[in-house]
Specification:
By secondary structure, this protein is mostly helical. Helices cover 58% and strands 0% of the residues. It has 6 helices and no strands.
Length: 139
């Protein structure tokens, strides 16, 4: 069971829906490795549950509040359902945390709506002027 403090937070994160999402992810774990679309549906489910934006300002696990134990439980639960999904989800949360810590006000302003809609945190970073370099190409 994952507990989140929701009484004073935005009500966009539905814990029961999230637990259903985890069950769906878990039930598909054996097949997801061989799915030609990768983990697309799993991340659509996470998006629909509100988990992809859960750490944004005003959300259930807003980085501006002391929510680390709850966030760690959330990451553990996703990883327990499917380790591959959990690792990518953790990367998403880590990216949002780096933005929270180091982005300027304009970058944060542009990132939050993008992450709340359909863009990933990585895509949102591209739109704020952050450049990504390929380790393999050396550029």
């Amino acid at each position: 069971m994952i507990e989140t403090p929701t009484q004073t937070k935005n009500q966009t994160f539905d814990l029961l829906n999230f637990e259903d999402t985890l069950e769906k992810i878990k039930s598909q774990a054996i097949w997801s490795e061989h799915d030609p679309e990768g983990l697309k549906k799993e991340f659509q489910w996470l998006k629909e549950s509100g988990a992809l934006k859960i750490v944004l300002p005003g959300e259930a696990l807003d980085f501006n509040q002391p929510n680390m134990p709850e966030l760690l439980n959330l990451l553990k639960a996703v990883g327990k359902a499917n380790l591959s999904v959990g690792r990518i989800f953790e990367g998403h949360i880590n990216t949002l945390y780096l933005i929270h810590l180091y982005a300027n006000a304009q970058q944060k302003k542009e990132m939050v709506p993008g992450c709340s809609r359909s863009r990933s945190s990585f895509r949102s970073l591209e739109h704020t002027g952050t450049k990504w370099y390929s380790v393999l190409s050396g550029s």
